[in-house]
Automatic annotation (TrEMBL):
InterPro entries: CheY-like_superfamily, NreC/VraR/RcsB-like_REC, Sig_transdc_resp-reg_C-effctor, Sig_transdc_resp-reg_receiver, Tscrpt_reg_LuxR_C, WalR-like. SMART domains: HTH_LUXR (SM00421), REC (SM00448). PANTHER family: TRANSCRIPTIONAL REGULATORY PROTEIN NARL-RELATED (PTHR43214:SF24), TWO-COMPONENT RESPONSE REGULATOR (PTHR43214). CDD domains: LuxR_C_like, REC_NarL-like. It comes from Streptomyces salinarius. Residues 155-220 form the HTH luxR-type domain. Residues 4-122 form the Response regulatory domain. This is Response regulator. The modification 4-aspartylphosphate is found at residue 55.
């Protein structure tokens, strides 16, 4: 199955480089290019994109607003947004995750990392690795001074819908562990873990694992800390 990729960046040179790389792969193709967020949101629907490589800072409608637009559209529930960033400690990046982005990708990443990120995002996983995403979110939230007063009570209330096992799995997901690692820790099968993860996402309204990590921190289930 071919992964349909949309490129959203105001720099034409970068888009051209990404297009050449993506189109060189047999399992993916570039279905459109956008120079601002509004165009990206429109093309994501028109071109039936699976993954959007989204620059954060663009003129006009920026990447954050575009991510929110895509995430808010039920018809685009399958679309995964990968934020292109320099990994700066920036509240903007955290807001992007909260808005529905699946994770981060550094603009200085190697070509293989970019291609892997697209495949991982298309599969509904967090980017680039659960550990990296968890570490970034934890650091950002900690630097924002996330304490008990900052916890989202609505998020905390929704956690009550989870079973004890689903909470345990959510904690492990927020800890940056893969399904196989969680299965070993909890002494269950990877398929059972996947089922619990999917149920937790459905109950909490999370698009993917990256969103589960954010919810775990915002609800207070897991406390952010700087290593």
């Amino acid at each position: 199955m071919t992964i349909r990729v949309l490129l959203a960046d105001d720099q034409a040179l970068l888009r051209s480089a990404f297009r050449v790389l993506v189109d060189s792969e047999p399992d993916m193709e570039v279905v459109g290019e956008a120079s601002d967020g509004a165009e990206a949101a429109r093309l994501a629907a028109e071109r039936r994109a699976d993954v959007v490589l989204m620059d954060i800072r663009m003129p006009g409608t920026d990447g954050l607003a575009a991510t929110r637009m895509i995430s808010a559209d039920p018809a685009l529930a399958h679309v995964r947004v990968v934020i292109l960033t320099t990994f700066e400690v920036d509240d903007y990046v955290v807001q992007s995750l909260r808005a529905g982005a699946s994770g981060f990708l550094g603009k200085g990443s190697e070509p293989d990392e970019l291609l892997s990120a697209i495949r991982v995002a298309a599969g509904g996983e967090a980017l680039l690795s659960p550990t990296a995403t968890k570490g970034l979110i934890a650091r950002f939230l900690a630097q924002q001074g996330a304490d008990d007063e900052d916890r989202d009570p609505a998020r905390a209330e929704r956690l009550e819908s989870l079973t004890v096992r689903e909470r345990e799995v959510l904690v492990q997901v927020a800890g940056g562990h893969s399904n196989d690692e969680i299965a070993e820790r909890l002494e269950v099968s990877p398929l059972t873990v996947k089922t619990h993860v999917n149920r937790a996402m459905a109950k909490l309204g999370a698009r993917d694992r990256a969103q589960l990590v954010v919810i775990a921190y915002e609800s207070g289930l897991v406390r952010p800390r700087v290593e």
